[in-house]
Amino acid sequence: MKKITYLITILLFISCQKEDLDSVPSYIKINNIELKDNITSNITDAWVYINGQLQGVYELPAKFPILEKGNTNIKIYAGIKNNGISSDRIIYPFYSADTINEVLTVNSTTEIFPVVNLKENIDGIEYDDFDPNYSFNYDSGFQVVNDEDGNNYGSLSLSDSDSISITEINYKDFPLIFDNVPQQGSPTYLELDYKSNTSFLVGMYINSPNSPTLEKGLLWINPKEEWNKIYIDLTQTVSEAIGAENFSIFIKMERDDNLDQNKIDIDNIRIIHYEK
Predict the structure, then answer these.
(1) Is residue 170 over pLDDT 80?
(2) What is d(CA 225, CA 237) in angstroms, rounded to the nearest whole number?
(3) Are 48 and 132 in a shared domain?
(4) What string of DSSP letters covers 129-157?
(5) Same-domain pairing of 158 and 262
(6) Which of 18, 97, 123, 191 is the most buried (most CB within 10 A)?
(7) Residues 230, 135: one domain?
(8) Which of 37, 196, 222, 215 is nearest to 127 (CA)?
(9) Statement to judge: residues 107 and 147 lie in one domain
């Protein structure tokens, strides 16, 4: 009887040890997700899938536990703040995922370095980086600036001595007039780098044959002292514009009389959508 009791005790001890070991996590660390492209990005989150199952969404930089060990398949999608809104976080539909296989060890941290690319079936990437070799028609109050590093960006300003109270940059012509968009809910986005001391409005002109151009404001953007990138969702507006011939973008600033000078600096404007 004592031998049986002793054996049961050993088996229970081994079982408890195994359960304790199974409950000890491994850790994954991700500092950032790199975009393998020649322009800026603002990837804020990692959407992490472990062996095909969603593990979680993590704001970067991140370190998180998982109950996996040994050879593990890790798939990372790049996440953004849709329209710059912290409560609206999505996988950016135009970046591919990165798949990484790692051997994980319990109670140890494995750092991974995801790299994503633009997907291959992207079409019609209309783009303006204010290259001085191209001549576009900008409104008054707008100029192309060359900084100390040799980079060009656009600057829209409005002072308290100006006779006008509203000014804008618009793309009623090349480069940011766009058509051939899939519509029917297919993602369409405007990417924009900016810094400003005042709020400004981003919107679209919807151009239809035999109809007046429709001006639609989309998003008021708050001031930022440092350069920031925002992804603006045009999908619903484009999808609802049945029969539209093409679309174009405007950026509008109203004068704030509390400021001596209202100013918006912008760069790397891009319209991006899938092939039709």
Answers:
(1) no
(2) 29
(3) no
(4) ---TTS-----TTEEEEE-TTS-EEEEEE
(5) yes
(6) 191
(7) yes
(8) 37
(9) no
Domain carrying residue 245: 122-274
Tokens of 241: 């514009």
Does any domain span residue 178?
yes
Q: Pairing between strand 26-30 and 109-111?
A: parallel
Query: Strand, helix or coil at 29?
Result: strand
Amino acid making up residue 113? F
Range 117-139 average pLDDT: 69
For the CA atoms of 187, 226, 127, 42, the dihedral, rounded to the nearest 10 degrees, stands at -40
153-157, 180-184, 188-192: which range is least confident on average?
Answer: 180-184
Same domain, 260 and 156: yes
Residue scoring higher pLDDT (46 or 274): 46
CATH number assigned to the domain comprising residue 235: 2.60.120.200
- Bridge partner residues of 266 (DSSP): 154, 194
- Average pLDDT, rounded, for the chain: 84
| Residue 246: band (very low, low, confident or very high) from pLDDT cuts 50, 70, 90 | confident
Greater pLDDT, 130 or 138: 130
In this structure, the answer to whether residues 167 and 107 fall within a common structural domain is: no
Across the range 184-192, mean pLDDT stands at 91
**CATH number, domain containing residue 53:** 2.60.40.10
pLDDT at site 2: 45
Q: How far lies 241's CA from each of 5, 188, 231, 249, in Å?
A: 78, 13, 20, 14
The rounded distance, in Å, linking the Cα atoms of 24 and 266 is: 49
For residues 86-97, one letter each, b for 16 or more C-beta atoms within 10 angstroms of the residue's C-beta and e for the rest, the string is eeeebebbbbeb
pLDDT of amino acid 270? 87
Among residues 116, 137, 158, the one where a domain terminates is 116
